[in-house]
Write a structure and sequence with these properties.
Largest sheet: 2 strands, antiparallel
Helix content: 55-70%
Strand content: under 5%
Strand order of the largest sheet: 1-2
Number of strands: 2
Number of helices: 6
Structural class: mainly alpha
Shape: elongated
Distance between the termini: 14 Å
Length: 173
């Protein structure tokens, strides 16, 4: 939505599929908005951008925390193998400016998904003995995953609210 608002505000027309009320991007070639946005200091959808940026940063740090708490239960060689298989890069920056550009939001989103993949790899690498119930391990894992679930539900609700607020302030096309 942010990309569409930025394009329309610069005079580009988005053709809308009337039956589904969604933009039809196949009908015309659109310029890369990140390149257009670099030459402008005016940023629209500031509340949505700020909410998205804060939510992505919070989600990224929550996933990082969960990965750190689950990692002691993993087999180091298996975890290393999972990182290789799923091409995990742990060096992505997560610094976001106060008024994030679309490129900043995309980088933050990429960093959040990378930390999410760290958690998934850690879950796949948890060492389990065949005849050991490992209650304390699974209790910790379930507790952490429950916290992540609550945080992601809040993240979804905040973004939905911000998106609805932004859509209500945009004039109809």
């Amino acid at each position: 939505m942010i990309q569409e608002v930025e394009l329309v505000s610069r005079g580009y027309r988005l053709y809308v599929n009337q039956s589904e009320n969604i933009p039809d991007h196949r009908s015309s070639a659109l310029p890369p908005i990140t390149r257009l946005e670099q030459s402008s200091t005016l940023r629209r959808c500031s509340n949505l951008r700020a909410t998205l940026s804060a939510s992505l940063t919070l989600a990224s740090s929550s996933f990082q925390r969960t990965a750190l708490l689950i990692t002691p239960f993993t087999t180091t060689s298996l975890l290393r193998q999972m990182h290789q298989v799923y091409n995990i890069d742990n060096t992505l920056p997560v610094d976001v400016p106060d008024a994030p550009s679309l490129a900043d939001l995309k980088a933050t989103s990429l960093a959040m998904h990378e930390t999410r993949r760290l958690v998934l790899c850690a879950l796949l690498a948890i060492h389990v003995e065949p005849f050991d119930a490992a209650w304390s391990t699974w209790r910790t894992v379930i507790h952490e995953l429950s916290g992540l679930t609550r945080m992601l539900a809040t993240f979804t609700n905040e973004l939905t609210r911000a998106l609805e607020d932004e859509q209500s302030t945009i004039s109809p096309r």
